[in-house]
C-alpha cells in the first residue's frame, strides 16, 4: 500500500507520532529490498532513521568486501545498522559489534535476534571506549567511520570523521594483525596512504561503474615493502578485476599514439585507483595522452576491464566534423578538454543516447581532438 493512501485512511484513529513511525518503516523497507534482499525476506526486521540504511553497505559490496577474510574473532567498531557485522558473522566464529546510539543499538539487536544470528556480542559504546576497556586480540578489526557532521553535512577528511583513525590506528594494530577501514570514494588515496601506517592493500570497489567504497587494509607486519592496489567493478554476473603494485605504477612506462582502430576507457574503479600507466602496459596498449586516460590499439583486446569502442574518425577540426551530428542522438564524453559534456551538447545541439560516441579530448601533441566511435558490441 502506498504510504500516502495509508495515512489518509481513517486519520482520526492514528496519532501523528504513530503515522510518522509507520511511514518511516515503510520507506525503510523500500530501501532494504533494494540494498539487502536477504533481510527484506524477514518480516520481523525493523528500521531506525533512514539515514542509517542509506549509509550502510549493500549486500553485494559486503559479500565481496569480506570474501577473503575468516577466523575466530572479528570486531566491527562502527556497527551502525549492522549489515557489515552480519556478513562478518558468516566468516568468523565470534564478532563484537559496537554502536554508541542506544536507539539504533536496540534496533540492530532486535534484528539479529530475528535473523537468528547467535555469534555476535553487542556493545553500546564508541570505538574508543571499547578499545580502552578491551583486552582481547582479534583476527580482524573493521571500521566504517561516520562521515556526517552533527549538521548532517558530508565529511571527507580522515581527521573529521568519527572515530578519528589518526588517533587510534596504533591501538587498533595492537589488538589485531589486520585492520580494514572503509572510506568514502571521495577520499584521496595518496593522501590516505601518507596518513595511515602499515597499509598493505587498498581496494577500490565499484558497482556498475560507480565507485562505492575505498577499503584500506592495515597490518602490524613491519616488513611491508610495497602496497598492492586491487580494483573490482561488479555489474550483474560480470566482474572486472585488476590488481597492481604501487611501485609498478610508479616505474611503468607507456607508449603514446594517435587513435588507432580501438579506443579503451578503464572502468571507474581503475580510474580511482590511479593505475594510469599499469593498465596500459599490462594490456599492451598505447595512450592517447598523459592526462586523457584513453588507450588505443590496432587489434582488439577483448578482456580489457572497461569500455571498448571502435574508432571511426579522429580529427582536430571538431566544428566541421560536428555539422552532420546536429540534433542527432550521441553520447558525449569530455576529458582533458576545456568544455564539459553539457556545454558541448548545447553548443553543437546534440541529444544524449545511442551506441555512438563523440569523445572530446587532448592528444599527446597537446592538440584538441574529436574522436568519433561506436560501441564495440
UniProtKB/TrEMBL annotation:
InterPro entries: PG_1098_Fer, SAM-dependent_MTases_sf, Thump-like
CDD domains assigned: AdoMet_MTases (cd02440)
Domain (THUMP-like): residue spans on this chain: 306-375
UniProt xrefs under Gene3D superfamilies: Vaccinia Virus protein VP39
Name recorded for this polypeptide: Uncharacterized protein
Domain PG-1098 ferredoxin-like: 262-305
Pfam families: PG_1098_Fer, Thump_like
Native source organism of the sequence: Jiulongibacter sediminis
